[in-house]
Specification:
The complex is a heterodimer. Chain A is mainly alpha-helical. Helix content of chain A is 68%, strand content 0%. The radius of gyration of chain A is 23 Å and the shape is globular. Chain B is elongated. In chain B, a hairpin with a 2-residue loop joins strand 12 and strand 13. By secondary structure, chain B is an alpha+beta fold. A six-stranded antiparallel beta sheet of chain B has the order 8-7-10-4-12-13, with no helix packed on it. Chain B is built from four helices and 16 strands. Classes of the chains: A mainly alpha, B alpha+beta. At the A-B interface, helix 2, helix 5, helix 8, helix 9 and helix 21 of A face helix 1, strand 2, helix 2, helix 3 and helix 4 of B.
Chain lengths: 488, 249
């Protein structure tokens, strides 16, 4: 163990130190329960930890008495999503809340049985959260929120290490690994997501780990051990969130790409593939039965935001019209403009880099303009490099295919879910947030590293330094703005 | 003979790029944002609505109050929000009398006719934090239209009354400190507030150490990791010799 730790390169240690500090800062910088959907996610964790059973969508109280008292007494409820509101800093309110906490009973902690909109999510994150919740022995609800948030902080550090290892599969040089892991560590939305109670961070961890193991599998072959890990990661993803089901497609791609590595020995393939698919099958069926038992419908959660609308159905033509309009703007000939006003700029720039807290902490528009320019320039350079180095990429098409499978699966599912929701809500609801893209943050990291490492030598170094510096500034600005928004 | 700039190692180019970007962005946006003086919010009994603006019409002689609000001991400026009916000129905005009270403390002020400083007024702050009420009485002839918030869960403990009757929409009220201050000068206070909402054992001292670590380590570790990795690479003239793919066994 000690020898393995000594083998960790110094730049990775630096990034681990960086991420640890940032993770702790993101855990502290927002008041309890004020991030996106945090009240509902914490209610799930608390009910599971206190009673051993998950909330449903037909209970008597959405939040426990203790959680509701915290939100009301310290002025947290009005703060959620409202950038003009502040929590109460007055000792009067704090004393009132502390007096309540001194007398709080088990029943007041355990009565949040629902209706909870997140009862449709799989139980994996909440089960881990319940362990963290119980670890805050003797603590009040504020301490317990902190401990559950720490889970995300640990995941954040692990994600950065996994991205480094993924980059090590793709680049012989060390510095592109540092660029890939650094770009991910400095992504402000990832930091914010790590600092809140939300299953999305577990999804990011599982997808990033899958990217690494999947890459190793297509490069080195499918073994029983790798198949078990891939199966567990995919199954875990399905048990974390409905959006996690999309990982099944990359799993199939990885398995298919592993065949030539086995010199088409089907007997050797059948055993590990059977393990992987078997685990996934068990997890998917368990998740299906579990979520259906809790809510009457399976695998919902943030996959279906709208409760149902006057119009129903949808069509393949409508889906393509929506996707076309998402990327290219209002072209009415393709059909009604569903979700007009929310396109790639909002989905890939504004809510991917900004919209922190409960979406209300945003940058000035010119910051997004700059980020959009940088992203566009990066994509242009990437395209040029793909054309220029196409032979090298074609020689490594399996590795490229794994990364593309992750991207296509994630974005495809998001579009499908968003379209379905728009149809059900008559074009009002927009079920897309940049946070939902974080499971493919590893692809973002290695793409940035690829672009930098395939530029001419000095230009590549300039680009790497510049991009990491942009990340530093974004990260500091995001933390500062979030601190000011809540406590300024 | 190689040109001089060609002898500069990549690590130096990366360092220059990082310093230039951080210097430029920091100087252009971050430093001014940190040092500009802004109003210091001490409490928001009723914040402005997020989506749906509600209003309360305050006619001549009528009184509207925000009740059950916590008024901190450093609250000196009381900010409301509002407008006039569409056909009324701004200079005819009515004089509004403001009274605040709670737990034995009373204060009185006035928003003059025409609202030259908007709908805000300075009052003597209470000697300690109190739970009290803040009332507006229309002393003019023209109706004042006060902004209010009727969104669910928007008000916390405070609520509003209009001529003694409780209203569905609560009148917007923000309380500010007497003097503006820069964010930089208040970092310690903000960190103290943040740690008070966190795990019990973490106090202000921990928060300040963490703040220093974030500010110092973020650029040092992030840029340092890339530079360290670059410095460790063997010299090469082509990017692909540096960054090619590792061979699969």
């Amino acid at each position: 163990m000690r020898r393995r730790l000594q083998e960790v390169p110094a730049p990775l240690w630096l990034l681990i130190a960086l991420t640890s500090v940032l993770a702790l800062a993101w855990v502290i910088v927002t008041p309890p329960l004020t991030n996106a959907d945090e009240t509902g996610h914490f209610a799930y964790v608390q009910h599971l930890a206190e009673t051993g059973s998950a909330p449903t969508n037909h209970g008597t109280r959405t939040l426990s008495s203790e959680e509701q008292t915290l939100l009301d007494t310290l002025g947290l409820q009005p703060t959620i999503g409202n950038a003009n509101a502040r929590p109460s800093f007055s000792p009067l309110d704090r004393q009132a809340f502390d007096a309540f906490e001194d007398q709080v009973t088990h029943d007041q902690r355990a009565d949040g049985d629902g209706p909870n909109q997140f009862a449709q999510n799989g139980p994996l994150y909440y089960a881990a959260g319940a362990v963290a919740y119980r670890a805050a022995v003797g603590g009040g609800i504020i301490d317990r929120v902190f401990f559950v948030r720490l889970l995300g902080a640990l995941a954040y550090v692990a994600i950065v290490v996994l991205v480094w290892l993924l980059a090590a599969e793709l680049f012989t040089a060390v510095w592109p690994r540092a660029v890939a892991a650094g770009a991910v560590a400095l992504q402000p939305k990832l930091g914010n997501t790590a600092g809140m109670v939300n299953p999305d961070i577990l999804l990011v961890l599982l997808w990033t780990a899958f990217a690494l193991v999947g890459m190793r599998t297509v490069r080195h072959g499918l073994t029983v051990r790798r198949a078990l890990v891939l199966g567990l990661l995919t199954g875990g993803s399905a048990l974390t969130h409905g959006r996690g089901l999309a990982l099944i497609l990359p799993l199939l791609v990885v398995m298919a790409l592993s065949v030539p590595r086995l010199r088409v020995d089907w007997r050797r393939l059948a055993k590990p593939a059977g393990y992987a698919l078997g685990i996934v099958g068990v997890c998917v069926v368990f998740g299906f039965l579990y979520t259906r038992a809790k809510t009457g419908g399976a695998y919902g959660g943030e996959l279906t935001q709208a409760a149902g609308g006057a119009s129903s159905g949808g069509s393949v033509k409508g889906l393509f019209a929506y996707i076309f309009n998402f990327y290219f703007g209002g072209y009415q000939a393709l059909g009604p403009l569903l979700g007009a006003g929310y396109g790639w700029r909002q989905g890939y720039i504004e809510t991917f880099f900004g919209s922190l807290g409960s979406l209300e902490v945003v940058f000035q528009p010119h910051i997004y303009d700059w980020l959009q320019f940088l992203a566009g320039a990066g994509l242009f350079v990437l395209w040029t490099q793909v054309v220029w180095f196409r032979d090298r990429l074609l020689a490594r098409w399996r590795e490229v295919a794994v990364l593309l499978a992750l991207v296509i699966a994630k974005i495809g599912l998001l579009h499908l879910a968003a379209y379905r929701d728009l149809v059900q809500s008559n074009g009002v609801g927009v079920l897309w947030s940049g946070r939902y893209l974080l499971p493919i943050i590893a692809v973002f990291g290695v793409t940035v590293a690829y672009v930098c490492s395939h530029l001419p030598r000095r230009l590549g170094a300039l680009a790497a330094g510049g991009i990491i510096a942009v990340g530093v500034v974004l990260q500091l600005a995001s933390l500062g703005q979030t601190l000011d928004r809540f406590y300024g | 003979m190689r040109r001089r700039w060609e002898r500069i190692p990549p690590v130096a180019w990366a360092l220059v790029a990082a310093v230039v970007v951080i210097g430029a962005v920091g100087g252009k946006w971050l430093w001014p944002w940190l040092t500009r003086e802004v109003g210091v919010v001490v409490a928001t009994p009723v914040a402005p609505a997020r989506f749906q603006l509600s209003t309360v019409e305050l006619k001549r002689g009528e009184v509207a109050c925000v009740e059950n609000a916590v008024i901190p001991s450093d609250a000196a400026v009381y900010m409301f929000a509002g407008s006039l009916p569409p056909d009324v000129e701004a200079r005819r905005a009515p004089r509004l009398e403001v009274r605040a009270s709670g737990d034995g403390w009373r204060a009185r002020g006035e928003i003059p006719r025409g609202w030259p400083h908007g709908l805000s007024v300075r009052l003597d702050p209470p000697p300690r934090d109190v739970v009290g009420r803040v009332c507006l009485r229309n002393r003019g002839h023209v109706t004042a239209v006060l902004n209010a918030n009727a969104e669910p869960g928007a008000t916390g403990r405070a609520f509003s009354t209009h001529d003694g009757k409780r209203t569905d929409a609560a009148i917007n009220l923000q309380l500010l400190r007497g003097e503006p201050a820069s964010r930089l000068s208040r970092l310690g206070e903000m960190v103290e507030r943040a740690t008070s909402f966190s795990w019990g054992p973490l106090g202000k001292g921990f928060g300040l150490v963490l703040l220093v670590l974030v500010v110092v380590l973020t650029p040092l570790c992030a840029i340092g990791a890339v530079l360290w990795a670059m410095a460790g690479e063997r010299r090469s003239d082509g990017p692909h010799d540096d960054a090619g793919y590792p061979e699969a066994p």
